[in-house]
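== Polypeptide entry ==
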Amino acid sequence: MNTITNIDLSNSRIAVPALLEYAKGELPKLCSGESFVLSDLFVGYEWLRIPAKDRKLLGRFFLDLAMSKEGRSILEIVEVINNGKQRYVRK
């Protein structure tokens, strides 16, 4: 899996596919059985620098990943929590 392990959000103009690759790269750092929401994969200030419309699109892309064959092997979709955030569990 070719993933991005470092991103620079200082100008908040990074493309959503690159953000998805970054999030995918963070998954191996989670322990099996660990529950998370997408924003947990980013440092708080980094997440807040991503424009809201891009965060929403990233959430959709990540959900699509979780439902794909690749995603089902490492992620479980658990529930939608407050503000429409999707909770996942690392298998």
